[in-house]
Amino acid sequence: MLNGWIILGIIVWLYGLSVLKRGNLSDFYFWWGSIGLFIISAFIFRPYFVWLISYLLTNTLGIFAKMTHWFSVYPVSNFLQISDGKTSVQLFVDYECSGVIEFLAYVSLVAFYPLYDRQARIVAGVTGSIWIFLANVIRLLFIVVVVKTCGGRALIWAHSVFGRLLFYTLVIILYYNVFTRPQMINGLNQRFLRRDDRATNG
C-alpha cells in the first residue's frame, strides 16, 4: 500500500520529468526518469516481483530436475535441495537469488533510453527481461552442477563467486547489445552525416 512519502516521491518525479522534457534536457530526463522509476518500482513492486520471479524460477528449474534427477525442487517454498550422495544442501530462491534488482534496473533504463521509440522500448524490455531470467536459470543450474560434482562445501564459491560472475557476464552482454552498441552505431552515423555535410558544403 502506498504511503504518503511514496506518493509525494511519485509527484516530485513526475513533475521533474515534465520540467526536463519541456526544457529539452534529454540526458537529465533519461537519468531522472530511470533512477526515479527504479526507486519507485523497488518500493512498490519489489515484494510482488520477488515472489513471482522466484515462483517462475523454481518451476522452470523443476523441468530440469525431472530430466536429470540431480536435485529436487519445492515451488511452494521456493527452494532447491541438492544432494551429492554424502550431504544435502538447500538453496532458497529468495530476494538475492531472484534477480529482481537487475530486472528492475534494466527495465527502468530501457523505459527512458532516448535512442529507442516506444515500440523498440517494449521489445527491448521484454526480450531483455527474458534474457535476465534465463541468465538466472543458467546461474542456478551451474550451482547445482558444481555442488553435485564437487560436494556441498563448494556451495559458497559456486553461489557467491562463480555463479555471480557467470550471471553478471551474461547481463553485461545484454547491456552491451541493448545500450552500448546502438549508441556506438548512432555516433558513427552522425560522424558520417557530418562528413557528408562538409563534403556537400565544400
Protein described:
This protein is mostly helical and 202 residues long. It has one domain (45-201). It is built from 7 helices and 3 strands; from the N terminus they run H-H-H-E-E-E-H-H-H-H. A hairpin with a 4-residue loop joins strand 2 and strand 3 (88-92). The protein starts with a helix and ends with a helix. The relative contact order is 0.09. The mean pLDDT is 85.
Number of strands: 3
Give the rounded overall mean pLDDT.
Answer: 85
N- and C-termini, Cα separation: 64 Å
Tally of helical runs: 7
Taking pLDDT < 50 over at least 5 consecutive residues as the criterion, the unreliable ranges are none
Largest sheet: 3 strands, antiparallel
Radius of gyration: 22 Å
Q: Strand order within the widest sheet?
A: 1-2-3
List the secondary-structure elements in sequence, H or E: HHHEEEHHHH
| Fraction of residues in β-strands | 5-15%
The chain-level structural class is: mainly alpha
Helix content: over 70%
The domain tally reads 1
Gross morphology: elongated
Considering the chains and any ligands shown, give keywords for the structure.
202 residues, 78% helix, mainly alpha, 3 strands
Give a brief description:
By secondary structure, the chain is mainly alpha-helical. Helix content is 78%, strand content 7%.
Question: What's the SSE blueprint?
Answer:
Elements: H1 4-22, H2 26-44, H3 46-68, E1 71-74, E2 79-83, E3 88-92, H4 95-98, H5 100-111, H6 118-150, H7 155-201
